[in-house]
Amino acid sequence: MHPVRLLARLLLPVACPCGELDVRWCARCAALLAGSPVRAERGAPRLDRLDGVPPVPVWALTPYTGPVRDVVVHWKDRGRADLDRLLVPALRGAAARLGPALSPALGGAPAAVVPVPSTGAARRARSRDPVAVLARAVATGLHDAGIRARVVPALARRGAGRDQVGLGARARGRNLAGAVRMTRRGVRSLGQRSACILVDDVLTTGATLAAVERALEHDGHEVLGAMVLAATPPPADGAGPARRPSSDIGGNLVRT
C-alpha cells in the first residue's frame, strides 16, 4: 500500500458501519440491500386511516434491524454521506423493479416523487437532506422502467417541530398532527392533481407517511405508494419469530 494511503488509514481508519474494518461497506451489508422491494405497510399501525380505505402501500428494501440499522444511522446522523454510493444504487434498482406494478395505476401520467420533509433543525444538524438523495434515486429508477418521474419537494414541516427519532407510536402521531403542509412551490409544481410516490428512509409506525398522505390528499393529489430503505419488522406472533414483510410487489396497489 502507498505510504500516504497507509498513513491516512492509520489516522482515519475506514470501517463499515457494522464494524468490519478497511471497507466502507462490507459485502454482507450490501447484500442485505439487494433484491426486489417487499411490501411492509402491515407492520405500521399508524398508517391505518380508520376510514375503510386500506393503508397506503409501502415498499422496503429490507427490515430495519441489525447491520441495516447501523448503516442507516451512520448515513443519516453520523456524517457518512459516502454511503450514498451504497444506498442510492440499491434504491434505484428497487424502484426500477417496482415500475411495472406502478405503470398501470399511472396510466401514462407522470409520477411525482415526493420526499418526506425533515425538520429544519434536522437539516441544519446534518448539513444536508438525506431523504432528498433517496427521492432522486427513486425518480431515476422509475425513469429506468420507462415511467416519467420527477422529484417534487412539495412539503414542509410546520413550526420548529421535534425529530421523530426515539418517539413511540402515539407520540409520533401527536408530534405530526397538523405538522405537514404544502409549500407554495409544491402547489405550483403539482398542479391540480398529481399521482405521488412518497419517499422516506425508514418506516416505523407509519405516522410520518400518514401525515404526508393527508397533506397531499387535502390538496387533491393521489398517493399511490411509498418507498423506504428499511421497515421496522412487525411484532412477533406469540413466541415465534417476527414476520417478514410480504413479498407481494404490486397487489392491491390501487386503493378503492
Structure, explained:
This protein has 256 residues and is α/β, with parallel strands linked by helices. The protein contains 9 helices and 8 strands. It has a 6-stranded mixed sheet. Helix 9 (207-218) links the parallel strand 7 (195-203) and strand 8. Helix 4 packs across helix 6.
Keywords for this entry:
single chain; 256 residues; alpha/beta; six-stranded mixed sheet; two-stranded antiparallel sheet; 9 helices; globular
Bulk shape: globular
Write down the overall mean pLDDT: 84
Number of extended strands: 8
Structural classification: alpha/beta
Number of helices: 9
Sketch the topology as an H/E string, one letter per element.
HHEEHHEHHEEHEHEHE
Helical fraction equals 25-40%
Biggest sheet: strand arrangement:
1-2-8-7-3-4
Largest sheet: 6 strands, mixed
Strand content: 15-25%
Task: Provide a brief overview of the structure.
The protein is built from nine helices and eight strands.
Secondary structure elements and pairings:
Layout: H1 3-11, H2 27-32, E1 38-39, E2 58-63, H3 66-77, H4 84-106, E3 111-115, H5 120-126, H6 130-144, E4 149-151, E5 155-157, H7 169-176, E6 180-182, H8 184-190, E7 195-203, H9 207-218, E8 222-231
Parallel strand pairs: 2-8, 3-4, 3-7, 7-8
Antiparallel strand pairs: 1-2, 5-6
Helix pairs in contact: 4-6
